[in-house]
Structure formats: C-alpha cells, structure tokens
User: Fold these one by one.
Assistant:
Number 1:
Amino acid sequence: MSERYDVKITLKSQLKKCPAGHKVGDEFVVGRYTPGGLCMGDFASMLPYITTLRFGGSFPWEKNPDVGTFCCPDPKVVNVFRIERLSPAREIEDSAGNK
C-alpha cells in the first residue's frame, strides 16, 4: 500500500459569515477519519483533493506540491480553504485490532 499522509485544512478567508459557524483560522485534520466540526458541504467538495494529498499526489497549478487552495460550494459565503499534506499518517488500530 502506498504511504498515507494526514492533511490539515485551514480556513484562510471568507466573503460573508458562514452559516455553519466556520471562522477564519479554523483548522481541521483529516487522517483515517473525517474531522469533527467541518460542515458536510465543505468536506464533500474537498474530499477528492484531500484524497489526492493523502496518497502522495499533487496539483500542477500549485507551486508547492504539498498544498492546495479550494473554496466551499456556497457562493454567498465563499470560504477559502488551504489544504496541506502533513507528515506520514501513523497506523492506528481500531477496537477490533484492524489497522
């Protein structure tokens, strides 16, 4: 299996107050599980990009191969998120002993 990385999501800017309560500076980390507190619209729209960074991919339009910048799908709020690859994820066993 290829190496997996954790991905940090940071809210960098927003046009208007977010109805989900997100504020500039909010941070979330995605590893094996979804991050608590991140609205489903934001998470769903970023999931393909998060997955790309988690498994070692990058985006040709970004100067830094470990970073991506994406917006939420709400055109009235326009939350702008930076996602960045962190160090390789640690293997965590669940309660059944699975990694």
Note: The chain has one domain: 5-88.
Number 2:
Amino acid sequence: MRAVGLMIGIMLLCNGCVSSQNKSLKYADEVDQKGKTVFEDGSVKISNPEVEYEVIIFDNQFEGWFVTRARPRGYYNKTFLESKNRQWVNSFNAKTRAGARGFDYTIDYQSSIDYGYEVNYMIYNYLLYFQETNQIRLD
C-alpha cells in the first residue's frame, strides 16, 4: 500500500512538471529568433546580428545559475526586460561610481538603443543572478 502511494505521488509530481513545461508562454512571439547566446569556458557571449550588439559576461557560476533558475524566453515581455535593465543598470553604475565594494566596472546600457529581446533577456538574468549571489538589491 505504501509503495502504491509513493508511485502515485511520483506520477503526480512528474505530471505537474510536464504540464507546466507545456504551457504556452505569454510573450513567446516577442522572442527574437536571430538573437544568440553561447556559454563557453566560463563566459557568456550574447549577440544579435540584426542590431549589431554583443555582450560578453565573464562569470564561471552564471551558466549553472541560468540553467537552473532563469525563466524561459518568452516569460517576460521585452518592455518589462528593458524597464528592469534600465533601473538596475542605473543603480549598478551609481554604486560603481560611489566606489561600493564588489562594483568594479560600469555597464554601458543605453535606453535609446533597441538591443533586441535576447540581449535584454540575458542582461536581465545576469543582473538578477548578480543580486541573488551577492545578496544585494539594485532597485
């Protein structure tokens, strides 16, 4: 009897995982198909040839975090990503200029430029990762 209960529990858990993966993403149509992200040797290269911008992130831990924690492409709309990126990059750069510990560089993100979905998606996820792993807020 106990084994049957355990099997039913496992089947329900697996069914829940599968059904959550099959839900259509609300903003999937905003994901630009030309954007590309490549993880290689502890760095991440994000590019969109259509807008001629490329972002390279050097952080050995980001790929593991991204694979296990990031929401799928299409979960957020592009406007949300751009808004958060503007807010977080401004805060990040202000902390860098103030000499805050752990903020050693500035991020060149210009809100007047359309970087495309992929670049905004990956910058958003990197800044989310940065906040979680360093236990800080950029709001």
Note: Residues 1-22 have pLDDT under 50 and may be disordered.
Number 3:
Amino acid sequence: MAFISAPGLAGKLYVPDGRPLRSKKHPCRDCFECQQCSDDRCSLCRSETMAAAGRGYDRGKPMRDGLRDVDYASTVTVSEILPAVPQAISPETCCGPKPPPASSSYERPGYRRLPFVAGFIDTAAGPVPRVATALAPADLIGAAAVRCGIGRNRGTIAPGLYAVGAAAADSPVLVTANYKLTFDTLRRELTGVDAWVLVLDTRGVNVWCAAGKKLFSHDELALRVQRTGLARVVRHRRLILPQLAATGVSARQVKKKCGFEVVWGPVRARDIHNFLRNGMKAEQAMRRVSFTFGERLVLVPVELSILLKPTAVILAALFLMSGIGGGIFSFEAAWARGLSAAAAYAAGVLAGAVATPALLPWIPGRAFALKGALTGTAVGGLLIFLLRTGLHATELSALLFLTAAVSSYLAMNFTGSTPFTSPSGVEKEMRRAIPLQAAALLVFALAWVGSAFAG
C-alpha cells in the first residue's frame, strides 16, 4: 500500500497496491476497483458537468507521488459540485436511503434549533427565528407537566426577538415573559397575525408575578430592545405590553431609556386579535381581570404538587406520634391510629387546596385563612362523623383541629394565585393567621398523644 501527499490537503491519501480485486464497469481513473456503485452514481462521477461545476476538476492532468500517476481534483468540493448539477442527483446517488435535508445556514455549533422555530427571517439586526403558532404535542405535554410541578424550573425560553408569520418593518411588537407557558399561550393566539414578539428575561416567571418581583421591568425592557437591535428591525417606535405588567413597568422610563412608546394591551392573550383590529384600543372587557371556576381549578395541580415532599415527612411524623402511648411505643397503635391521622391530613389538603379554590366566591369571609378554616372544619366534621365509632371524643376533636389548620394554611397559600389580594394584604393576613394555625397544630399534637395515655 502507499500513502501520498496532495497539495492543499493535510495528511496523506491512501492508494492501494496491487491489481484490483474486481473489474471496473467503466475505465475511470478515480476508481481502483469496482465499488458496485449505481448507474446514477457512475454517471455523476463521469459527467462532464464536473468541470463546469466550478474550479479545476481536470481528469487529464495526473499528479505524481514519485512512484505513479494519481488523478486528484485539487479544488472541487461537494458543496460546489452538487448545486451545479442538480439534474444528476437522485435518491440513489449512493448506497442507503435518500439523505436528509442539508443543514440550515442559520445553525451554529453548540446550539440546538427548538421544535417551535419554523424558520428564520433576515433583518438588519441579523436573522430572527420565526415561530410556529400551532402547538405541537410536545408543547401540550410539557405544559401539563409544568402545571403539575414537573420541570417547573426548566420551563423557560431564551429571551430575545422572535417573529410570527411574515413579520415586517411595520408589524406590531408584542412584549412577553420567557416563561414557556406564557410564550406558548401568546404565539397560539397569534395565528394569522404578522408580528414581532420581544421576550424579556423574567427568569421563567409569568408576566404578573414577574412584574411584582420587578423582573418584568422598564430596565429589562429597555435592555432587551437595545440588545436585539429592535430599532433597526422596525420603523415604528411602539411596544405592546400586557396590562398585567403595569406594576413593574414605567412607560415614561421606557421612552426615556430606549425611545419606544408603551401601548398597554389586553389582560388576556386571546383578545390580541380584536385589540389589533381595533387600532390598538382595548375595550372595557379586555381590561377586566376574571377568576372563573375553570381558571381557579387549573391552579389546583400546582398547589398539590408543592405538597409532595412535605407530605412524606408529615405522614411519617403522624404515624410516629400515633404509636406513642402508655407502653412507650406500639407499632399496632401507630398503624391503626396513624391511618386516622393521615385521613385527617388528607381531608385538610382536599379542603384547602381543592374545595376552597373551587368554592372561593361562596365561602364566607374575606381572609383566605378564614375561608380555609371554615372549609376545613366542614370537611373535618364529615370525617369525624365517619370515624366516630372507632375513636374517643378527644381523638376526634384533635383530628378536627388538624384538618382545619392544614386547610387554613393551604387556602392562605392560594392567595398568590388570585387577583383578590395585594402583597401588603397577604403579609398582614399571614402575621395574624400563622400563629393561630400553629396553635391549632399544637392542640392537635397534645390532644392526640395525650388521648393515648388516657386510654
């Protein structure tokens, strides 16, 4: 065998020694023996269009390595040849199935193109990814997982500028958060609309909460406008912001920092079409924040998912407490009484995280802790009625305190998901409610353990 050097190439080329093992179909200088290529492949290799493809493919000019003549196309590359001879390419140009499409010119080493990116739009500020408005099954599955608390911290997209439809220099610019559920909701509602979507870095937090945390702010908005080169992409100077971002954004500061005017859009993404059709004017209904039965129930899985880890510890503590008695510790009592205590805890979770959100407008009182306590007392009363034959009065009373305390705490925790409260109001309620909830749990613990010693 022999290895030869070729001008313009690093390393060496391998040239087999000896006579070919298989005779050739054509007297090609490029082949040492027959590779069983298809006729289309042979035609492509022998085609005179090789010379027309670009630069310097010359079959008649051999090169020498000192021992023999070796043909070598010194300057022709595949990327130069293939565009020039599309008529010679077929699905059978080589062994195996038809190759997949060529890589996009927008691909970059170390980066992965996301499934919702349908292409790119070239702008004066560089290529902008164009997103699809139809949600794929993976988007729906991911949304369901996030609502159940699975992968919540990974539900983000990269901040920056995105395009929808055939966005152009006069297309509107909509601003949103980089929380994937928020982004998906907006792009789904933009079907048939040509627009730009400017995504802020809100650390994966939704618009309303991000505005309250000052993550969706005029500083971040101005920074994102500058980094994306938005002024070179659009001719106008207007940004459409969701109304729920108003607590974190000063329109005056945005104008001062980046020169863009803020237009307050509707509360809900589903009203975007009508908002744009009305000349960027929101009707009264578009400004109203609702909290319907369905909107409340969709938050329940998130509330329940938060309880998974602490529930394991709480149940272990309940079973341990249930086994303490006159004989120091009884595994039989731990199991029998522990089941009753676990049922009371589960009733509190059901009352505070499910029943209270569902029945929120109809439960008396304004404080969520009070609403949860009332609901927990009602559900706990039903549980006591079911367990009345197997437990003493002290034990039944203890379980009622446990159910009411758990329900009150979970209902109070639900305040952050509602439009009925303010940060200052929540803090005030917590200062009053948490000591009472802790006292109720202490009463439960003393009564539950003490009843075992009393017999």
Note: Residues 157 and 178 are 5 Å apart (CA to CA).
